Queue: 4 jobs
Job 1
Amino acid sequence: MKTSSMIAAGALAAAAGIAGAQTQTITFDGLAHGEIINTQYQLPNGVTVAAYNANKKFDLAVAFDTTRTQTADPDLEDPWTGGNLPGTTVLGNVIIIQENDIGIGDGIADRPDDEGGRPAGNILFGFDAPITEFGFDIVDLEGNLPEFSYVDFYKDGSFVGVIGFDQFVSGGAHDNGAVYGNNSINRIAPIDLVDAFGVAPDRATFFVGGSMAFDNVTFTSVPAPATAGFLGFGGLLAARPRRA
Ligand SMILES: [Ca+2]
Ligand SMILES: [Ca+2]
Ligand SMILES: [Ca+2]
Ligand SMILES: [Ca+2]
């Protein structure tokens, strides 16, 4: 009796595990250098990307290949010179707010370069399902006050909380041992958003204080409650015949 109920509980947990929380990372790799990023991750990942350039009349997030040389911005080229990751870390493509609109008509900016205005603007990630955890890499944030940056979180259009990048340095509220500087890379481990804000947001908006990039956007999404209940019920039904 005890064993069978444990098996049933196990089956339920397994069903919830498959259909429940799922962690994904968007690497931006596989896109062309300069490719405009908006709906590429909608179907595979349930994520929509948008940008706002505070300095220009166009609002473009584009991919920038950090393994290249002689790009429009050497600060975004590897190898790296600081941060909490090894200088030899290969990031491949990162995401930037595009500074110019040269050759964008075909969906690929011909001269990828990150907006250098302070602030540069915003990069938004919209999630089809609420997220409980959120992590990312910060590239080339020099860390001086004019470049101060943060990430805002929203649920159903309402602001739920903010985390400043100053909290990622040693001793900060979200200590990742981040060390900012020119040509630096810092990895921010997934933050427990439910713990921080008491709710699972469905949008993350980076406030981009100046010239910088992001990569490896990592998130754990949870299914809508109705879906979770339905699948949980299915898990129970599936477990029944084994008992008989
Ligand atoms: Ca990448
Ligand atoms: Ca082009
Ligand atoms: Ca630049
Ligand atoms: Ca720089």
Job 2
Amino acid sequence: MLTSDEKYMQRCLQLAAKGEYYVAPNPMVGAVLVAADGTILGEGWHKKFGGPHAEVNAFADYDMHGERHTCLAEATLYVSLEPCSHYGKTPPCADMIIRRGVGRVVVGCIDPNPQVATRGIRRLQDAGIEVVVGVMEKECRELNRRFICLQEKHRPYVILKWAQTADGFIAPLPKGDGEQPRLVLSSVLTKMVVHRMRAENMAIMVGTNTVIFDNPKLLTTHWSGRNPVRVVLDRHGRLSREMNVFSDDAQTIVYRSNTDWQYVLCDLAARGIHSVLVEGGSLLLNHILSTGIYDELHVEVAPITIGEGVVAPKIDLPGTPSQVIDSRSLYEIRHQ
Ligand SMILES: NC(=O)c1ccc[n+]([C@@H]2O[C@H](COP(=O)([O-])OP(=O)(O)OC[C@H]3O[C@@H](n4cnc5c(N)ncnc54)[C@H](OP(=O)(O)O)[C@@H]3O)[C@@H](O)[C@H]2O)c1
């Protein structure tokens, strides 16, 4: 059974999620203004990058629809992420909350951005506002795991994803002429799941051989949302500008001299990219797996066998005792 603080924080999380696909690299944030009797006076969320923050939108909603005579000194503002205390693209939300005279603020989790990092909370407390921190903290951090990873670890959040046959191959072997026979491992459903993952992450990356053999577009076509920035490696100048990854549909970053994983991550972080989805092939995935620097693995297992092929990265699939590796999430998207 949820406490009433948890109930309103859960609503903040629902609202925050409406900003998915539109706010990156900013966090998704939701806010709810609640009267002493539990009536919701206003709701808001961060709708797009550079736009007003959730708290500003919640007060705007209150101004338009709320009970004008409600005494805000008795109201509680719920917000899934600590209100900001600095001038960024918008003025500090903490100052606005103080000005509006709200008596109590409930915060889901602290903003790890060094420009905020508890300063917003302290500013509210210094103004005499009662502040509760950490209601549904795990869920609030989970929602913004990409943003939090960039702030705390100074690197993008990394998701590794591949599809393989039941006997452990990600593709048929190339033929003598260098051509590769086509093998479809995804279903209509799993293709949509993968394209949703593309929309959720700021960058998508594949190895050089995958660009050459598959000539992929790496766009978000089977789900609504933005195309991620494409990241490819080309140490030996093997990629032609005519290839689909260089189309005008999205930005493409090419690493030529240094393609070491730590270097690539460091450079992507410097560009403000908070997440990268790596979609193969095996050589690149094995390199990344060997560094241990990744956060999630998504493995799609198609119910077919081909006997020989490009061997899938070596990990223990779910169902084995090592289902959860180093507390990272391991998912399996099974064909129905
Ligand atoms: N089923 C799936 O989910 C899936 C997904 C993607 C691809 N595939 C299949 O996988 C096959 C290609 O996989 P692959 O394992 O042969 O190659 P890959 O991982 O796509 O590309 C590996 C190549 O990338 C270059 N590279 C540069 N920096 C690297 C680094 N740090 N670590 C690793 N590689 C680096 C190297 O080429 P240079 O020596 O030229 O630098 C290397 O040979 C294709 O047949 C494709 O169809 C399947």
Job 3
Amino acid sequence: MAAPLLLVPSDPLAPRAPDEHFAREVEAARGGGLTVAVVDHDAVVAGELPAAVRQVPASDVARTAWYRGWMICSSAYARLGSALEARGVRLLTSPAAYAAAHELPGWYDAFAGSTPASVWSPWEPGRTPTPADVGPLLETLGGGPGVVKDYVKSRKHEWDEACYVPDLADINTATRVVARMVELQGDGLAGGIVVRAFEPFVTDGGRAQEVRVWWVLGAPALVTPHPDAPAGSDADVPAGVLDAVGRNVAALGAPFVTTDLALRADGVWRVIEVGDGQVSDLPGGQDPAPLLRALAAAG
Ligand SMILES: Nc1ncnc2c1ncn2[C@@H]1O[C@H](COP(=O)(O)OP(=O)(O)OP(=O)(O)O)[C@@H](O)[C@H]1O
Ligand SMILES: [Mg+2]
């Protein structure tokens, strides 16, 4: 059985080469026995398949592949999967598993109890929500502070205007924040609206200090700071916490995922966010070798 491929985005200025952002991972992948091929990210997003995968070696023998690249929406990932199948290549993360790990409604049930209570509703980009839309959505959360995002991403850098709601019982303010989030996400709004109960985390003076755990086939392959954390941040999680989150990861069933964990002020570790490992970012200075070794072994 041939080693799995690692697919990475091509460099837009040198289309035969991997994007510089993934250069260290490419080097580590080759060192770990993976064969690397490039896909054209912009073409994937534009729906220009099969052109997007024309540099992936076609094979009569079934081959498997991991992807490491920029975030793409679940439907683009599914298109990528079909175009690769036509070349005899099967993504080890199925489109269904990608959607489950990538979008909050997909992973929430597997992590219920470990992650802040959340509600969601599908939403069309560009449509402005009203109190009549937002009020019923918030009913089960009750009052208290909340955090707003789409199925994948928040506007955390526009915290006061488009992310944080001081009191979810104040439907007009909640609607204003949700509407601003929808407006700022524009056409990029992923899936719909998510509202989460705010929990007080240990912070670095601003936002929660998060540790990202990288799971390959249910085992923790690497633990890093969140990529936005200040350089030199800690990345330690107690073994018992890893065991507990590992059970959530097993319940989700996706083969390559990240979990962003943070310590709540009362000393309980919580899962802030789950992501598909293929499109989660590594901190700049991080040695990717342990991750690529795990991906090679899991192929
Ligand atoms: N329920 C919550 N309670 C308290 N703070 C939260 C909550 N949810 C999110 N946050 C804060 O908001 C930030 C952004 O939230 P989240 O990670 O869900 O969004 P994101 O835009 O996907 O971020 P990322 O850059 O990690 O992809 C978190 O890093 C955390 O500091
Ligand atoms: Mg996050």
Job 4
Amino acid sequence: MDKPTLDTGTVYDVCTGTARSSSVRKALQGLKETVVRAAAAYEFAAARQAQHTLNHLKHQPDGESAAKATNGSINEELKKTYVNRMVSGAGRGFYNKLRGSCRGLCALCGHGAADTLDHQLPKDSFPLLSVVPINLVPACSRCNHQKKEHAPTHAGDQTLHPYFDGDVHDHLWLFAQVTGSPKPSIIFHVDPPADMPPAFAARARHHFATLQLSELYNSQIGNELRSLGMGLARHPLPPAELREHLQEIAEIKTAVEGRNSWKAALYRGLVDSIWYLEGGWEEPWR
Ligand SMILES: [Zn+2]
């Protein structure tokens, strides 16, 4: 997805401008250039999948983790700028715009409704990035919760960044293995191709594991397979024709939802499953 065009300085001005205490307001506004510079460094690193190199921004400006920051410290105030003046308050318009930027969907799982914003680099570790638009990603509460406050230690050690890692989807890496024995099951897994850059491959794996996408996708397949099965019960197809039919659906899901969406992976998996083509579709898939 496209990165937001909101200007960091403008968002920061609006979100800090209504801090109740004039001394806090002054202190926050005195940091504007530091925040704008931090955002530029972040953008430079993110475009190169190198957010792990931003250690010089960690716990800045006062050197304390904002998770442990004492009340009234500047790091705590930066965090509050997001919580009190962006989630609600003067900056709410920016929050809503960012949250709705992925057609209302979570940009991390592509499935849940975006009911929150996720800090790609967590605000406890990177308070300077608390209200920096390119660090704020529309997300569902589930993904936001799974991701926790993780700060990356190497290039592969973080979830995919929807604004900067779009090229990862030039490669096909999500698959679903469909088997009938010992019992009908579908296992989603990441299998990066050999020509995929190692940082992307590691990130795709990290993303899938951290967000527990296997569980999420498996919780969704029942309805999809039941409706497919009901359609086939009405108009049964011999295996070769069913294969063609499923192949067509896989292509449509790829075009609409992306080649690494769970639906595209599911239909590719069905195409490759002799067991499914030869009658597995009759399973009730409870
Ligand atoms: Zn999600």
